[in-house]
Specification:
This protein is an alpha+beta fold. The protein contains 8 helices and 21 strands. The strands form 7 sheets. Strands 3, 4, 5, 6 and 9 form a 5-stranded mixed β-sheet that branches. The chain has a 4-stranded antiparallel β-sheet with strand order 2-10-7-8. The chain starts with a strand and ends in a 10-residue tail after the last helix.
Length: 363
């Protein structure tokens, strides 16, 4: 790309946000005008408040001061909550060209600090407008191909999930199933790991399963619960949205927050892997939903989960299904790894097009 550059402020004109913004508590699920804030979603909600809708200076480039999310809007919209910076293209610059430049820019991650202070240091490649529009067209074509690949990988993950659910469903159709209380067939892990806590990685539970914990170890690390192979654990505040994990064979054992619920299937009664997939299946989701009432919606501890009922197939049937489920795991991991690579492609594509150094600090 042409090496001629201009300062950020010579390409982007900052516009005041002012008080014309709407707090998150007033977001509507449906309405006349979309709300754009600094979150990951392109549209955060809707509003019917005409007085705060922005109709002038479109298209506008939206920058999340805390999140570094970048968006562009060529339609009337309302600004949501705080942390939003608005920019329009100065004369000689195509708005979409600037949008893609900013989206590809490497902006130092200051956590939840404000990042707009780093924008002034950016240098914007200055090309004639026909060339800018050509580059925008090229970017859109390549991003469309990336999106097609992402959707294909996502579809593969859905199929693997359906297959896992089908395996669970088949075991539940066994003629010798027996209805049992979850409290009678599961053992809760209550004891903390003790003084050896620093020897283990801290693990968390997400909607995708096992993951390194995002939070640092708290004030009492000795209370963190050990999670070894066969341990199922979940975030009691987020179990309703599927934040459930299991340490499987091949995973590194670790510790998890003392606020999490950790459990194991009772020996020769419940196969832990079978139970983990049951808990994440439609059958498990229905059980969790049936237990989530009143204040418990905010926090489902083991004593409430223990009140649930499970239809248990014979233990050998669970084990056979568990072996089949184990064979799905490397396939799922392979697709997930490919999906992670695909999701990095847009940033790499934009970095290459705009000659952005890849070794600059990023999140």
């Amino acid at each position: 790309m042409n090496s001629v550059t201009v300062a950020f402020c010579d390409a982007f004109e900052a516009l005041p946000v002012g008080k014309a913004k709407i707090p998150a508590a007033k977001y509507l699920l449906q309405g006349k005008y979309p709300i754009i804030d600094q979150g990951q979603a392109n549209i955060a909600g809707y509003t019917n408040e005409e007085s705060i809708v922005r109709r002038e200076n479109l298209p506008l480039i939206i920058f999340g001061d805390h999140t570094r999310c970048v968006k562009v809007a060529d339609f009337p919209f309302a600004v949501g909550a705080d942390g939003v910076r608005l920019y329009r293209a100065r004369m000689g610059f195509d708005p979409e060209y600037l949008f893609y430049f900013l989206k590809g820019a490497r902006i130092r991650n200051d956590g939840y600090g404000r990042h707009s202070k780093h924008l002034e240091a950016l240098e914007v490649p200055k090309l004639n407008e026909p060339e800018q529009r050509r580059i925008v067209s090229e970017i859109k074509l390549q991003l469309a191909a990336v999106e097609e690949a992402r959707q294909a990988a996502t579809a593969q993950l859905r199929e693997l999930t359906r297959l896992a659910n089908a395996i669970i469903r088949e075991t539940l159709a066994h003629p010798d199933t027996e209805a049992r209380s979850l409290g009678d067939v599961l053992d809760e892990v209550k004891q903390g790991v003790g003084a050896r806590w620093a020897d283990f990685p801290v693990l968390g539970a997400t909607r995708d399963g096992l993951a390194p914990a995002k939070e640092q170890v708290g004030k009492h690390p000795e209370r963190y619960k050990p999670v070894r192979v066969g341990t199922v654990f979940y975030n009691p505040m987020r179990i309703l949205i599927g934040s459930i994990a299991m340490v499987d064979e091949g995973d590194t054992p670790g510790i998890t927050s003392p606020d999490y619920v950790a459990l194991r299937g009772r020996e020769s009664v419940v196969d832990s892997r079978w139970f983990y997939y049951w808990l994440r299946s439609p059958e498990g989701e229905r059980c969790i939903s049936s237990l989530a009432r009143g204040a418990v919606r905010e926090r489902m501890l083991f004593n409430r989960l223990a009140e649930g009922e499970i239809v248990l197939p014979p233990y050998p049937v669970q084990q056979a299904a568990s072996r089949a489920l184990a064979e799905l795991r490397p396939m799922k991991q392979s697709v997930e790894a490919r999906l992670r690579e695909i999701e990095r492609l847009p940033q790499r594509l934009l970095a290459e097009i705009f000659d952005i150094e890849e070794d600059v600090e990023d999140a």
